[in-house]
Design a protein that fits this description.
Layout lengths: L1 H8 L4 E7 L2 E6 L4 H16 L8 E5 L2 E4 L3
Antiparallel strand pairs: 1-2, 3-4
C-alpha cells in the first residue's frame, strides 16, 4: 500500500509525512486536497475491495482536525 501511495503522490504537491498502524498523515495544499482525496480513496478501495472504512480529516495542525466535507 505504501509503495502505491508514494507512487500516486510522486508528481503532486502532497506528501505522506506519518504512517501509524491504521492512519496516515499527509501534508497537502488546500488547492489539491479534493483531487488527492478522490485519488487516495479510489486507490485504497481498489486495493482492498472496499473492506475498510475511510475517513478524511483536514486542519491547519494535528490538534485541530475536522472531517473533510464533500
Amino acid at each position: 500500500l505504501m509503495d502505491k501511495i508514494q507512487e500516486y503522490l510522486n508528481d503532486k504537491d502532497c506528501k505522506l509525512i506519518m504512517y501509524c498502524y491504521d492512519s496516515m498523515l499527509f501534508d497537502c495544499s488546500k488547492e489539491e486536497i479534493t483531487n488527492i482525496k478522490t485519488g487516495l480513496v479510489d486507490l485504497i478501495n481498489n486495493l482492498y475491495q472496499k473492506r475498510f472504512p475511510i475517513s478524511i480529516k483536514v486542519g491547519n495542525n494535528y490538534k485541530y482536525l475536522f472531517p473533510l466535507k464533500n
